[in-house]
TrEMBL record:
Origin species: Asaia lannensis NBRC 102526
UniProt domain Core: residue ranges: 18-117
Superkingdom field: Bacteria
Pfam families for the chain: Fe-S_biosyn (PF01521)
Protein's name in the database: Iron-sulfur cluster insertion protein ErpA
Record InterPro entries: ATAP, ATAP_core_dom, FeS_cluster_insertion_CS, HesB-like_dom_sf
Length: 123
């Protein structure tokens, strides 16, 4: 079951979501930490990377008043409002392939992305 807690005036439709596979991996990663209480995965979009923007994934206990909190299958994901604008309609996914395992974002707003999957540009 997924639940998103947006700021009071933000609509839910078309917002950022978390796949079940990504949620399972987040739960697994957090459970392996020395102090897992209050940890969440923060997903942010920063300026930089090969294509103009890059995704950042990090464990975080700090929550801002305007953070969007997404709860999916026991996992908690935090997104700041500025990043959320660039993640509109996107989904956090976890990919486990022969070449490696990593979080990725399926972002319909990205006009192009680099081979590593952490950098993108907008149309």
């Amino acid at each position: 079951m997924s639940q998103t807690t947006p700021p009071s005036d933000a609509p839910l439709a078309g917002r950022f979501s978390v796949s079940p596979g990504a949620a399972a991996r987040i739960v697994e990663i957090i459970s392996q930490q020395e102090e897992p209480d209050g940890l969440a995965l923060r997903v942010a979009v920063l300026a930089g990377g090969c294509n103009g923007f890059q995704y950042q994934f990090k464990l975080d206990t700090d929550r801002a008043d305007d953070d969007i909190v997404i709860e999916q299958d026991g996992a908690t994901v935090l997104v700041d409002p500025v990043s959320l604008d660039l993640l509109e309609g996107a989904q956090l996914q976890f990919v486990d392939k022969l070449m490696g395992a990593h979080f990725t974002v399926a972002n319909p707003n990205a006009a192009s992305s680099c081979g590593c999957g952490t950098s993108f540009s907008l149309a």
